[in-house]
Amino acid sequence: MVLGWREITEPRVAASFGIIAPTWALASIGISIALSPWFSWTDNALSDLGVSRVAPIFNSGLIICGILIFPFIVGLAKIERTKRLGLIGSVMLLLSSVFLIGVGVFSEAFGLVHFYFSAAFFVSLILSSIILGIHFTLNISNKSLGIFTLLIGIISFIGWIVWATVRLSGVAIPETINILLASFWIIVLSIRMYRKK
Predict the structure, then answer these.
(1) Mean pLDDT across the stretch 83-90?
(2) Is 162:174 a contact under the CB 8 Å cutoff?
(3) pTM above 0.90, yes or no
Protein backbone atom coordinates (compact mmCIF):
# COMPACT_ATOMS: atom_id res chain seq x y z
CA MET A 1 0.00 0.00 0.00
CA VAL A 2 1.41 3.37 -1.04
CA LEU A 3 0.79 6.25 1.36
CA GLY A 4 -0.03 9.71 0.03
CA TRP A 5 1.52 12.98 1.20
CA ARG A 6 -1.32 13.59 3.65
CA GLU A 7 -0.78 10.19 5.28
CA ILE A 8 3.01 10.40 5.58
CA THR A 9 2.83 13.87 7.12
CA GLU A 10 0.42 12.75 9.82
CA PRO A 11 2.44 13.17 13.03
CA ARG A 12 2.62 9.49 14.04
CA VAL A 13 3.85 8.44 10.58
CA ALA A 14 6.01 11.54 10.07
CA ALA A 15 7.80 10.78 13.34
CA SER A 16 9.51 7.77 11.74
CA PHE A 17 11.08 10.09 9.14
CA GLY A 18 12.52 12.16 11.99
CA ILE A 19 14.44 9.08 13.10
CA ILE A 20 15.38 7.71 9.68
CA ALA A 21 16.65 11.01 8.17
CA PRO A 22 19.31 11.97 10.75
CA THR A 23 20.37 8.33 11.08
CA TRP A 24 20.87 8.21 7.31
CA ALA A 25 22.96 11.41 7.37
CA LEU A 26 25.11 10.26 10.29
CA ALA A 27 25.70 6.88 8.63
CA SER A 28 26.74 8.45 5.31
CA ILE A 29 29.08 10.90 7.07
CA GLY A 30 30.53 8.14 9.26
CA ILE A 31 31.11 5.81 6.30
CA SER A 32 32.69 8.65 4.31
CA ILE A 33 35.10 9.46 7.15
CA ALA A 34 35.94 5.77 7.69
CA LEU A 35 36.83 5.43 4.00
CA SER A 36 38.97 8.60 4.03
CA PRO A 37 42.21 8.06 5.99
CA TRP A 38 43.41 11.51 4.89
CA PHE A 39 40.56 13.25 6.75
CA SER A 40 41.68 15.42 9.69
CA TRP A 41 39.30 16.73 12.35
CA THR A 42 41.38 19.87 12.84
CA ASP A 43 42.37 20.60 9.23
CA ASN A 44 39.30 19.69 7.17
CA ALA A 45 35.65 20.56 6.80
CA LEU A 46 33.13 17.75 6.50
CA SER A 47 32.36 19.12 3.04
CA ASP A 48 35.87 18.18 1.91
CA LEU A 49 34.46 14.65 1.78
CA GLY A 50 32.04 15.89 -0.89
CA VAL A 51 34.85 16.48 -3.38
CA SER A 52 36.83 13.29 -2.68
CA ARG A 53 36.44 9.70 -3.86
CA VAL A 54 33.65 9.21 -1.28
CA ALA A 55 31.70 12.16 -2.71
CA PRO A 56 28.79 9.99 -3.97
CA ILE A 57 28.25 8.55 -0.47
CA PHE A 58 28.62 11.87 1.35
CA ASN A 59 26.67 14.15 -1.01
CA SER A 60 23.82 11.69 -1.64
CA GLY A 61 23.56 11.11 2.12
CA LEU A 62 22.97 14.83 2.72
CA ILE A 63 20.49 15.11 -0.14
CA ILE A 64 18.52 12.04 0.95
CA CYS A 65 18.49 13.24 4.58
CA GLY A 66 17.19 16.65 3.46
CA ILE A 67 14.38 14.99 1.48
CA LEU A 68 13.50 12.37 4.13
CA ILE A 69 13.17 15.00 6.87
CA PHE A 70 10.41 16.89 4.98
CA PRO A 71 7.48 14.74 6.20
CA PHE A 72 8.74 15.00 9.80
CA ILE A 73 8.92 18.80 9.62
CA VAL A 74 5.47 19.09 8.03
CA GLY A 75 4.11 16.79 10.75
CA LEU A 76 5.75 18.99 13.40
CA ALA A 77 4.25 22.10 11.78
CA LYS A 78 0.80 20.48 11.88
CA ILE A 79 1.14 20.00 15.64
CA GLU A 80 2.59 23.46 16.32
CA ARG A 81 0.65 25.48 13.71
CA THR A 82 -1.65 27.19 16.19
CA LYS A 83 1.27 28.90 17.95
CA ARG A 84 3.26 31.54 16.05
CA LEU A 85 6.70 30.59 17.45
CA GLY A 86 6.03 26.90 16.86
CA LEU A 87 5.16 27.55 13.23
CA ILE A 88 8.12 29.91 12.69
CA GLY A 89 10.51 27.37 14.24
CA SER A 90 9.07 24.62 12.03
CA VAL A 91 9.45 26.78 8.90
CA MET A 92 13.05 27.59 9.90
CA LEU A 93 13.73 23.86 10.27
CA LEU A 94 12.18 23.27 6.85
CA LEU A 95 14.50 25.91 5.38
CA SER A 96 17.49 24.18 6.98
CA SER A 97 16.53 20.94 5.22
CA VAL A 98 16.37 22.79 1.88
CA PHE A 99 19.82 24.26 2.58
CA LEU A 100 21.12 20.78 3.47
CA ILE A 101 19.99 19.50 0.08
CA GLY A 102 21.82 22.47 -1.45
CA VAL A 103 25.01 21.52 0.43
CA GLY A 104 24.83 18.04 -1.12
CA VAL A 105 23.93 19.23 -4.62
CA PHE A 106 26.45 22.09 -4.72
CA SER A 107 29.65 20.56 -3.35
CA GLU A 108 32.81 22.55 -2.58
CA ALA A 109 33.54 22.37 -6.32
CA PHE A 110 30.91 25.14 -6.68
CA GLY A 111 32.92 27.53 -4.48
CA LEU A 112 30.93 30.31 -2.84
CA VAL A 113 27.57 28.73 -3.72
CA HIS A 114 28.49 25.80 -1.48
CA PHE A 115 29.66 28.12 1.29
CA TYR A 116 26.38 30.06 1.26
CA PHE A 117 24.28 26.88 1.43
CA SER A 118 26.46 25.48 4.21
CA ALA A 119 26.38 28.67 6.30
CA ALA A 120 22.61 29.01 5.78
CA PHE A 121 22.12 25.39 6.85
CA PHE A 122 23.95 25.75 10.16
CA VAL A 123 22.49 29.18 10.97
CA SER A 124 18.90 28.10 10.24
CA LEU A 125 19.38 24.86 12.19
CA ILE A 126 20.57 26.74 15.28
CA LEU A 127 17.83 29.37 14.92
CA SER A 128 15.13 26.70 14.59
CA SER A 129 16.21 25.01 17.82
CA ILE A 130 16.34 28.34 19.69
CA ILE A 131 12.92 29.46 18.38
CA LEU A 132 11.30 26.08 19.07
CA GLY A 133 13.06 25.97 22.45
CA ILE A 134 11.48 29.27 23.43
CA HIS A 135 8.12 28.07 22.10
CA PHE A 136 8.24 24.82 24.09
CA THR A 137 9.47 26.61 27.23
CA LEU A 138 6.50 29.00 27.12
CA ASN A 139 4.19 25.99 27.03
CA ILE A 140 3.86 24.74 30.63
CA SER A 141 3.51 21.09 29.58
CA ASN A 142 6.71 21.23 27.48
CA LYS A 143 9.12 23.13 29.74
CA SER A 144 11.69 20.32 29.97
CA LEU A 145 11.57 19.81 26.18
CA GLY A 146 11.94 23.58 25.76
CA ILE A 147 15.02 23.78 27.99
CA PHE A 148 16.53 20.77 26.20
CA THR A 149 15.83 22.31 22.78
CA LEU A 150 17.23 25.69 23.81
CA LEU A 151 20.39 24.03 25.15
CA ILE A 152 20.90 22.27 21.80
CA GLY A 153 20.85 25.63 20.00
CA ILE A 154 23.00 27.41 22.60
CA ILE A 155 25.66 24.66 22.76
CA SER A 156 25.81 24.54 18.95
CA PHE A 157 26.26 28.32 18.82
CA ILE A 158 28.97 28.22 21.52
CA GLY A 159 30.75 25.50 19.53
CA TRP A 160 31.03 27.87 16.58
CA ILE A 161 32.22 30.74 18.83
CA VAL A 162 34.93 28.53 20.35
CA TRP A 163 36.02 27.40 16.89
CA ALA A 164 36.26 31.02 15.70
CA THR A 165 38.26 31.95 18.80
CA VAL A 166 40.71 29.03 18.60
CA ARG A 167 40.98 29.52 14.84
CA LEU A 168 41.47 25.92 13.75
CA SER A 169 42.07 25.62 10.03
CA GLY A 170 39.17 23.22 9.51
CA VAL A 171 35.56 23.37 10.64
CA ALA A 172 34.85 19.66 10.99
CA ILE A 173 34.65 19.77 14.80
CA PRO A 174 31.93 22.46 15.19
CA GLU A 175 30.10 21.03 12.17
CA THR A 176 30.07 17.58 13.75
CA ILE A 177 29.01 18.89 17.17
CA ASN A 178 26.15 20.79 15.51
CA ILE A 179 25.06 17.79 13.43
CA LEU A 180 25.24 15.31 16.33
CA LEU A 181 23.26 17.60 18.66
CA ALA A 182 20.66 18.38 15.99
CA SER A 183 20.27 14.69 15.14
CA PHE A 184 19.74 13.79 18.79
CA TRP A 185 17.26 16.67 19.17
CA ILE A 186 15.27 15.68 16.07
CA ILE A 187 15.10 12.06 17.22
CA VAL A 188 13.80 13.22 20.64
CA LEU A 189 11.20 15.42 18.92
CA SER A 190 10.23 12.44 16.73
CA ILE A 191 9.61 10.25 19.77
CA ARG A 192 7.53 13.06 21.33
CA MET A 193 5.59 13.45 18.08
CA TYR A 194 4.87 9.72 17.91
CA ARG A 195 3.56 9.69 21.48
CA LYS A 196 1.56 12.91 21.15
CA LYS A 197 -2.17 12.32 20.74
Answers:
(1) 90
(2) yes
(3) yes
